[in-house]
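[SOLVED] Need 3D model of a two-part complex

Original post:
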Amino acid sequence: MLAKLIVYYAHPGQRFSRANEAMVAACRPVEGVTFVDLYAEYPRFNIDIEREQQRLIDHDVILFQCPLFWYSTPALVKEWIDLTLEHGFAYGAGGDRLDGKVMMFALTAAGPAEAYTPNGYQHYPLRTFLTPLERTAGLCQMRFAAPYALYGSLLAADDGRIPPHAEGYRRLLTALRDDAYDFERADSLGIVEVGHLDSLIGD
Amino acid sequence: MGDFLLLSFIFLCAGVIAVPIASRLGLGSVLGYLIAGIAISPLLAALNVDVIAIQHFAEFGVVMMLFLVGLELEPKLLWGMRNRLLGLGGLQVGLTIAAVMGVAMILGQPWTVALAIGFVLALSSTAIVLQTLNEKGLMKSDGGQSSFSVLLFQDIAVIPILAILPLLVLPELADAAHGAAADGHGAADHGADDHGGDSHGTNLNMIASLPAWAQVLATLGAIAAVVLIGSLATRPLFRFIAWARLRELFTAAALLGVIGIALLMTLVGLSPALGAFLAGVVLANSEYRHELESDIDPFRGLLLGLFFITVGASVDFELLGANLAPILGLTLGLMALKALILFALAFVFRIRGADRWLFTLGLAQAGEFGFVLLSFTTQNNVIPQAVADQLLLIVALSMLLTPLLFILFDRVIAPRFSAGQDREPDEITPEGGIIIAGHGRFGGIVNRMMRGAGHDTTVLDFSSEQLELLRAFDVKVFFGDATRPDLIHAAGIEDARILVICIDDKAQITELARHVCKHHPHVHVIARAVDRQHVYELYAVGVRDIIRETFDSGVRAGRCAFEALGVHPFEAERLARQFAQDDRYAMRELASVYKADVPIQDNPEYVEKAKAIREEREAELKRGGRGFNSRSDRGWAPPTLKDVEVVTEADEEERHEG
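Solution:
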């Protein structure tokens, strides 16, 4: 059975992000995936709540593709969460419309992987900074799937890491769509990088 | 002609000098006019002026005042007042008549004369009381509303009183009068009706000779005519007048309306003031209300001023000097008696605190209807002339003393109650106070936004066609030229929080903004600017919220052009924001060197500055390389390795110390 997948792409300065540009280019051809450029749809932040809630109802996997800004998402994603995940819809009395769905993030982080270690300059693993998002999914009874991340994104172009990451993104989306992705195994990794994909994607 | 000019000059001069002085001393305008009247009375006597005739003419101001009061009072409000009106008003009139009659009989008057005196003295002065209450802003208070109820009832009560008085004729006076009339010098000479313009005159009564049922029918018909014409004919009439596009025609029409009503009421023997009040109530919901108000108000003010002057001038000091003690005593006694009854009624009707005293002291005088009734009684041989002359003095003196009582209330009583602990909570003023001047393509949007969010607005527009259209959509609008200061005043600029100027004409926008910024600095003015220079002009007259009428739509069109070029919508949004910000910056800079009276090209400072700003912008473009973190694209930038090293070192130091 095919899972219905929606990608919310959120980047306020798109033409400056080579990594995200490549990821978008890689995921657009994947059939059966709904693609939304949040900043293009809501440049003035006036989010259409009804439309967004309908989109959530219509899809099984909700994937946000965005850069990590200040240990969090760009502002519009927060606004989207604030407005769309309404009481009585996503949580609280009668708020079970998202029960059993999957929330996932595809992140680009400027810091290198070593920075997100106890001795690195960020002090904590990347996953720790995502706790608020994880609890957001939890409160909405959604599975918070391990994020797919690109560390050191600013240097990735020079290191030639962008094409494999984008290609991995395409494989990931295809697997999610085809219900061929091992969520449990991904959970045990905490953060999924392109090198992990072989072990997570079945046939 | 010469006489007319001389008289006008004397009256206007007295008013113009005395009223500002009295207001400055905190005595109020009424006392100022009264004093002015006393001051010019010797002059008037020397010129042989018939003060009483002028007074009866000036009484028309009372009619106008009641028309204006009616305009402020929607039928719903009037219905809500019915208990106070009948209960409070009825008891005040009834009890005061009885008490005054009793005292008069004790003083040796026959019962018929005593009753007539009761009628004369029971009524209070609508002119003084309403004028003072309005001036002090006490009209909306409990005391003010109660006072108004009583005054309104008194006005109604004049009708039956005028009907009863002729029944009280003293036979011996009637005989004497007949004899005198044969010589052509009847007591009627003292009557008002010979002079015309009497607001309660009956000599025009066309239906007196009809049978009773026909009289009732005619009276009801007249009232129905006022209501019907007021509610149905006003609109087409004003639309008709609007074709002429002459401002003074509206004034003429408003005057025509009030005078017409007064005439109609006089014809059927009703009080013109009452008829005007009724017409006012009928028109209270009309969109022409503010227009009518501002047209009539100056006439009301002048006529009432004239009326007060004549009251002052009509005091017969010779007679007063001869009977100083008894007349002064009777005046004070009358006021004490009336005040006692009012105080008791206030107690029964639960008027509390300062409002009780306002009610008691405010209505304790005899009023201008007293003059009317006195002339009517002497003319009908009900009260002997000698008694009437003394009563006239008592009425005038009590009116003269009333402003002093208001001062007493203001200075002594009101402060005591407002300082007291058990003060009534302030009435919460309703939200709103938004005036929108001009309801075209611009103002219409503002109005829809405000009303859509539940705010009450007062909309003024000077186009009948526009009004027709709006009424079809149930929008509440008022007819009138918003640039007239008096109309803005009538629309409630004193209590307004916001004025949005949305009219088309550049010069009128500036004029209105100048007026409101100068005279009503508490109002937040938002003004529509036609172009860039207009922005500077508006800034110069004090407006700080200036909206260029086409700027925002221009920016939006530019943004759409960016998007059509393939620029990302959020990027286009940011470019548009940046443009608007830059433009506003340039505007402020240029406004500081703009000179209203110098054309831009002749203002070297302005030209210099404009060039500098343009060069600055071009240089920035040449520098080029708008990165993600440049001015229009500021946002999150990841820390560089250098930033990280600084943080890491600091962290390590901390760790070593710890």
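Edit: The beta strands of chain A are 5-9, 33-37, 61-67, 102-108, 143-144, 148-150.
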